[in-house]
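Quick one, T. Sequence first:
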Amino acid sequence: MNILLLLLFALPLAATEVSLEAKWKRPLRPDVSGSLRIGEEVIAFQPDKPGKRPLEWTLNDVQHFDRVSASEVAIRTYADSMLRLGKDRWYRFELVGGTLTDDLHAQVVAGIGKPATDRVVREPADAELAIPAKHVRLLKGSEGTLYFTPGWIMYVTEAKSASRAWRLDRDVDGVWSSDPYRFEVHVLDGSEAFVRRPAVHRFSLKRPIDTGFYTSLKMKLYELRSPR
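Structure tokens:
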């Protein structure tokens, strides 16, 4: 084989770096137009207006990353928010010149190395079980389908920003079922640092969950959480 080809195969795949036209969505204040740069080690926002201070975080400084939609992302930092009495500060960006693709999203989340939120979810091809369900929320729930794959729990719905994908070995702290028609997913999805605890997503199932499948899922999660 050509030596050049051998060298190319030996090299790791380069991470993608993109710059997307975006708006920084600020509560109670005007939006700021600029560009959002997503690289191998850094996420940065450069305002268009001269003199405006840029924002920049290393991936290690990103506490939580939320893909709200293909054209909207939210970043929780470790900085305190003065307007929210010391709670961690969020930055929300609307992409107006592109989208956050699945590959780019996977690159960002892998670089951050922490639990993440993904609301851009489609029916998986490798589902082991699918159950129609209602996601029970305090103000307004949604109806969709829970999918269970070898590595994920997914909830797919047509309701805006209500779909979710949770990776078993990264995002899911545990599951619980009080009866065959109730199912809970306990998720490490970026709750406030000073009240750190899993968020609980509750579902009313339209068909009962199989007892054997539920038991095997509990055992899989136990093994994933056990020290190696």
